[in-house]
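Task: sequence design from structure.
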């Protein structure tokens, strides 16, 4: 239990210490009007209170990623917990802060527009395609996963029998509604209530396992195991662990979600709490599920068997009901189910807004919102027919590759303004090496090259990208300032 509490304390300390450093480096301006005020439209640009914006941001980014990923990552042993803490503080929360605050500074722009501004039009077009693909994969994952869990819950706990297909249709119907209605009608109104259920799930599970007479928290593990690969299936820790645990440590999906709340945040001073803080909250959720997975089953071999016999969803079901009984298990299980649903709807919403920006189509009218949204849902429905395991593998890689693009974008911004760019450049180099090494070495998704060669190419490519970003960003501070003033002028004129 001491390990878990130490990790949680480190995350909270990271928020107050390193988060303050990141905020100072960015340089907030409390007098600057945010897009929520300069571009209010009653649909996507709607001022909301800070607690509400925080809870919506947390639920937007916390899908099944900080649950399924840490469960799968737990197969590597306590090393997964170390990556969650280090990755969350120095990479994930920093990534989320800059993705949100750069959107605030750019009139609530989506991530492809921001990337294009600081890395060029080629990067913008690449990110438009990549972000849409990622969000579609997220939408599909966050339809299939909750549909499967709800179906399993109803069929196992009641006399009623429902089909997976029927549940997919119901969730899709909700997504369509949530994607096109104003942000404050469903998302802003009900998500804070879902947040309360999420808190119950998190606190309830850890309290139950801490006082359980059958399960010892992290029993049998030593401190040295934090730096050891204990995977019973002999899976390599590098670079797979850093792809497996995405949303609990760093996730490119968050870069697509942060602009949603950048359009609703009332003051720049709230950015650290909303963006950096929400990622810290997700890191704690990831720690809880990693700890539960490492403790509930007694051994990594038993955990591996549970995953093999029903995936991480089976781990969630077994732990929820095993620790909290039927009533508490249902509440905790529903708390887990809500996470992907509250991220799936905003994934499609983000897709709609990215397409609208690309085609220059205003989104005040319902007709225009439907024109952008319906093709996305048709593609999403088709993708639900693909094997979930395949979708999840591609989602994991696409997710981290998107995070890499956002980190390099943030580095370009900091370089332009002669600020300490290493806070984003170092995690960018690391995650770029992870992604390139993974795709070169992986047999199922990539090229199946030897690990040593893949790693050398990954590191070399990362350094080459760093040189390129530094070169194109040098001496553009004055141009950047003029562009910023023009963006703000247009935003005020539009309002």
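Answer:
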């Amino acid at each position: 239990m001491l390990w878990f509490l130490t990790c949680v304390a480190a995350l909270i300390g990271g928020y107050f210490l390193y988060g303050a450093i990141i905020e100072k480096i960015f340089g907030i301006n409390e007098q600057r009007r945010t897009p929520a005020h300069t571009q209010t439209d009653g649909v996507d640009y709607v001022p909301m209170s800070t607690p509400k914006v925080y809870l919506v941001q947390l639920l937007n980014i916390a899908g099944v990623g900080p649950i399924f990923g840490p469960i799968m990552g737990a197969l590597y042993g306590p090393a997964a917990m170390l990556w969650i803490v280090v990755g969350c503080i120095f990479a994930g929360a920093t990534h989320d802060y800059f993705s949100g605050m750069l959107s605030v500074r750019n009139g609530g722009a989506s991530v492809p527009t921001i990337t294009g501004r600081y890395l060029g039009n080629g990067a913008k077009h690449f990110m438009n395609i990549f972000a849409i693909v990622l969000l579609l994969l997220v939408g599909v994952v966050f339809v299939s996963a909750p549909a499967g869990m709800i179906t399993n819950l109803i069929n196992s706990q009641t006399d009623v029998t429902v089909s997976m297909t029927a549940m997919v249709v119901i969730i899709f119907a909700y997504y369509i509604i949530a994607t096109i209605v104003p942000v404050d009608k469903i998302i802003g109104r009900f998500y804070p209530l879902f947040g309360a259920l999420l808190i119950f799930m998190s606190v309830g599970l850890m309290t139950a396992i801490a006082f359980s007479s059958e399960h010892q928290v992290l029993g049998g593990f030593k401190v040295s195991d934090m730096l050891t690969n204990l995977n019973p299936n002999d899976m390599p820790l590098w670079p797979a662990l850093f792809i497996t645990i995405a949303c609990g440590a760093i996730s490119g999906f968050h870069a697509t979600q942060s602009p949603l709340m950048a359009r609703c945040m009332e003051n720049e001073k709230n950015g650290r709490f909303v963006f950096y803080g929400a990622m810290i909250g997700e890191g704690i959720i990831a720690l809880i599920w990693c700890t539960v997975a490492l403790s509930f089953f007694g051994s990594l071999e038993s955990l591996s068997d549970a995953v093999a016999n029903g995936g991480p969803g089976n781990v969630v079901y077994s732990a929820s009901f095993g620790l909290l009984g039927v009533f508490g298990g249902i509440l905790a299980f529903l708390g887990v189910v809500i996470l992907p649903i509250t991220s799936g709807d905003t994934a499609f919403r983000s897709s709609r807004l990215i397409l609208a920006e690309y085609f220059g189509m205003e989104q005040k009218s319902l007709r225009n919102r439907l024109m952008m949204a319906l093709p996305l849902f048709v593609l999403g429905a088709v993708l639900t027919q693909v094997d979930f395991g395949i979708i999840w593998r591609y989602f994991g890689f696409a997710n981290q590759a998107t995070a890499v693009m956002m980190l390099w974008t943030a580095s370009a911004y900091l370089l332009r303004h002669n600020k300490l760019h290493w806070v984003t450049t170092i995690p960018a180099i690391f995650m770029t090496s992870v992604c390139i090494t993974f795709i070169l070495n992986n047999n199922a998704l990539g090229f199946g090259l030897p690990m040593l060669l893949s790693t050398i190419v990954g590191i070399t490519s990362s350094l080459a990208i760093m040189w390129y970003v530094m070169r194109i960003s040098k001496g553009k501070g004055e141009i950047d300032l003029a562009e910023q003033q023009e963006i703000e002028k247009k935003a005020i004129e539009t309002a």
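Residues 1-388 form a domain with the Amino acid/polyamine transporter I fold (CATH 1.20.1740.10).
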